[in-house]
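[Q] Does anyone have a clean structure-token version of this?
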Amino acid sequence: MEYPVYLEWTNCSLGGRRPWFLCPAQGCGRRVAVLFGGSIFACRHCHKLAYECQRETDDDRALRRAGSIRRRLGWQAGIANPTGDKPKGMHWRTFWRLKAEHDAFANASWAGMAERLGLLSRRLSGIECNLNGDG
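[A] Here you go.
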């Protein structure tokens, strides 16, 4: 297929000019920095593309947030690994705040994973059987 892809130029606040693509998809015409391939080159909206974080579940988001706190604290990656010490030069108040946030995100992630795997419902049904004498 051959079709035109037009450019539009805008002025920058500190001088100079910046080029933008105009999305060639029918009925779109958005001014975008990137066009994505497919049946035609078009913007992310026309291809219905989303950022990875927009498709995350709540527990995936909690895992990502806990991981970024672990990186900031210089701890080993992965919430299953033990927590580390306070980094040199960090205020204790900041360390305790970040540790509390990390623990909350890690707990939310563990709970979400357990729910996905059905561990909580199996455990609760086992408790109900024992209470009813079904053993």
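[Q] Thanks! Anything notable?
[A] The longest strand covers residues 17-22.
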